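Researcher: Here's a chain I'd like modeled. Treat it as a single chain, no partners, no ligands.
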Amino acid sequence: MEVISTHRGSHNFFNQLIREVKEHGNPKKISLHRVTLQDALDQGFLFKLQQMLPADDERQAMDEAAYFDFIRSGCADEESFQQEYMCNPADDDVAFLEYDLIASAEYESGADWQRLEGGRLFLGIDIGRKQDLTVAWLLEELGDVLYTRRVICLQNMRKSDQEKVLWPLIEMADRTCVDATGLGIGWADDAQDQFGEYRVEAVTFSTRTKEALAYPVRGAMEDKKLRIPYDPAIRADLRQVTKQVTSSGNVRFTAERTADGHSDRFWALGLAKHAAANPSAPIEFTSDGPRAAVTETEGFFYV
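Model: Modeled as a single isolated chain. Structure tokens:
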């Protein structure tokens, strides 16, 4: 039997087999062969590829170093490149969502995932302008499963131009949660003025709010009650979120800022999930003082 694969995180059977070979004396007597992109280029892969490409293909003019950079720049992020092309598994102990968990929630290849089927619609909007994306994530509820129907990303667009895309989505949705943090405050106010506070909830991001948004996303994936499209950018975005426990025992969710945003898709999904789970209630959390229901005012998602 031959097994050929790239890594998909560190917590999976494939990586377990590799670790048995490298760290535990190879009890299954596996013949392990590791071929990275650099190995393939050193062994003449680019020359063979160029013999099969059309004469006007841009890769015809590349040498090995240029092709290496071409492949690297085309990956969603550095973690994806290291895993898919350099045989280095992503660290599932750091990421909040494991690769296998994300993959288990993805639609099958070829699925018409944007087709609406008459269920209730819930929208999450994470607001951005220049560095970060504005992301709108639309979920349709069918039975006890939430199906992603739209994921819209906007960048470097004026507020008025973004509204032309987002307002029709809010009109479609039964309920919307909008990121009202910082730049999002004005967005949330305008959305509530346009569509009513009963349909649009403003969510201000804080440590506790992020925790309240993040765990339901993972729980829905674990329970097979969430479907998302397969897209390298979405995978990379979901993988960027890490959970850190501070010295005082508090949980912080962080994400590295990249050219493609700041895990904006993840937070848009979290807002959409919250809109679906709490059709008429704000996020609640317990502070060190008296318990209070707090309506966050800074939330927006982009699908």
